[in-house]
User: Which sequence fits this backbone?
């Protein structure tokens, strides 16, 4: 039966591939042809242009207002942060700041800034620019990450950050109301890229498509739904890019994208179908990179409803009704079974949590106890494009649909393109929905607080799309933010994972090692566990 299900689903995928592949390539340019920036042809040498293909377009190019990797992949090239991560992990090193000091009580951080940095618009970078950016994040309602990462809530929008002051031309001081253990790692995240105040003021509400930072690449143009073009920043203070230009192309279908890589029309790609990996690895013209696993793919159940998903018995029944072992055959070795909302590669992981397992009879029993013995109708919202944590969303949704049908749960699959999917799930329109997360800073807080705390269950900008609200969880997670002892923090996170497992707001699906395929002549590329990396070290022959 398992083999039959897999053959059926893969057959549907192959048919889709053949149809889509026939219209791949430049014919997929957006019909509305909405462009921003300089729409003239670049004068860069095309032979030194890197064409990087992905499954969906960016939402915005103002990194403080988005949570999706497609946006942050591009903004990572345009902006710099005060501190940044080392190339192979989440240990921080200097960025726009050269050094920093932390007070004994953990409430004051003083940064010394570089004095040789200019924004892409030619203006000088100073401490006042850092203050300007943090002020705008505090004051802007749709600056998503400020609340998520700095512990802000509707009752306390500024969270633990008391003030940001320029204490010299090239010195900035952060004062906190209370210590925050992951603070320095948070500042290295791409959403805290420093933007040019002049550019923000000039473009106003359209700044999101006219980005100006200090990074190794400058913004050139954006043809919505088709491509984003960036040019080398010749005046970059760090390692100047080895390539003249980067083009981020949108090719929605994995198979069509892979065909273009094989034909040579693109240089690198995300979202390789699991069944294509061995072929790519065996192709002497290609190479495959594996991103270190620091992610989770999951199906959230909307607990903020009067309907069935508000009942933990129903949520547990959903978990028991899905055969994870069979489901993971669709990942073809890329995914490992997830039982917690954070990956086992992070400290604080609770390996003592027992997974639900597959027990359709127990699932039926729980549904009957909840009053749904005669059946249940639910929606499952899925993105149409592949994600690093969910490489084949359509097949995964269809498999879950078939499995849950056996326990009298009738699933209607609602598929949307990426940006619409994010909007609808953040608004809570779903009963169940696929989503996932790639860790930003290597701290458990970045998974548990961001994805499952009540602070982040605000409709319209929810990171917690299960809309799960548990006061005990909130107390544990906010206590862990303040605690400076990592061993004590670890115990708090382990207790939180146990409670979350018992409440079952999610069906955790998998932790993956996402593949990136490239021509074999690409050099200098190192995939980062956070899911994004700068391209200034990439070399073309």
Assistant:
């Amino acid at each position: 039966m398992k083999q039959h299900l897999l053959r059926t689903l893969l057959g549907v995928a192959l048919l889709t591939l053949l149809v889509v592949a026939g219209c791949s390539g430049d014919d997929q340019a957006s019909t509305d042809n909405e462009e921003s920036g300089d729409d003239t042809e670049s004068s860069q040498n095309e032979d030194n242009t890197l064409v990087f293909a992905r499954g969906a377009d960016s939402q915005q190019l103002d990194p403080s207002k988005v949570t999706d990797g497609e946006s942050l992949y591009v903004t990572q090239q345009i902006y710099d942060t005060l501190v940044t991560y080392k190339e192979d992990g989440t240990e921080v090193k200097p960025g726009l700041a050269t050094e920093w000091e932390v007070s004994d009580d953990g409430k004051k951080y003083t940064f010394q800034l570089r004095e040789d940095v200019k924004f892409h618009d030619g203006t000088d970078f100073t401490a006042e620019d850092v203050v300007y950016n943090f002020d705008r994040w505090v004051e802007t309602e749709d600056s998503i990450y400020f609340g998520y990462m700095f512990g802000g809530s509707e009752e306390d929008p500024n969270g633990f950050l008391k003030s940001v002051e320029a204490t010299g031309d090239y010195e900035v001081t952060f004062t906190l109301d209370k210590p925050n253990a992951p603070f320095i790692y948070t500042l290295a995240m791409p959403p805290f890229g420093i933007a040019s105040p002049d550019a923000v003021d000039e473009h106003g509400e359209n700044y999101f498509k006219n980005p100006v930072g200090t990074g190794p690449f400058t913004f050139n143009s954006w043809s919505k739904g088709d491509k984003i073009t960036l040019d080398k920043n010749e005046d970059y203070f760090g390692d100047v890019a080895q390539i003249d230009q980067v083009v981020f192309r949108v090719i929605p279908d994995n198979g069509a994208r892979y065909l273009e890589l094989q034909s040579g029309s693109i240089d690198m790609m995300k979202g390789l179908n699991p069944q294509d990996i061995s072929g790519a690895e065996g192709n002497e013209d290609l190479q495959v990179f594996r991103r270190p696993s620091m992610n989770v793919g999951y199906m959230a159940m909307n607990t903020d409803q009067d309907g069935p998903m508000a009942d933990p018995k129903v949520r547990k029944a959903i978990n028991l009704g899905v055969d994870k072992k069979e489901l993971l055959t669709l990942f073809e070795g890329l995914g490992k079974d997830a039982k917690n909302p954070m990956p086992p590669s992070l400290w604080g992981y609770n390996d003592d949590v027992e997974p639900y397992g597959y027990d359709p009879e127990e699932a039926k029993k729980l549904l009957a106890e909840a009053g749904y013995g005669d059946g249940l109708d639910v929606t499952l919202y899925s993105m149409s494009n592949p994600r690093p944590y969910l490489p084949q969303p359509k097949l995964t949704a269809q498999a879950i649909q078939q499995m849950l049908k056996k326990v009298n749960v009738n699933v209607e699959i609602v598929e949307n393109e990426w940006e619409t999917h994010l909007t609808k799930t953040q608004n809570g329109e779903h009963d169940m929905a696929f989503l996932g997360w790639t860790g930003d800073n290597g701290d458990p807080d970045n998974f548990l607080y961001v994805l499952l705390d009540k602070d982040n269950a605000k409709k319209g900008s929810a990171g917690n799309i299960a809309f799960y609200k548990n006061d005990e969880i909130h107390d544990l997670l906010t206590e862990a933010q303040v605690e400076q002892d990592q061993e004590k923090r670890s115990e708090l996170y382990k207790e939180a994972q146990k409670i979350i497992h018992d409440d079952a707001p999610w069906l955790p699906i998998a932790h993956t090692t996402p593949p990136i395929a490239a021509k074999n002549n690409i050099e200098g590329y190192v995939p980062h566990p956070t899911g994004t990396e700068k391209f200034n070290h990439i070399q073309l022959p």
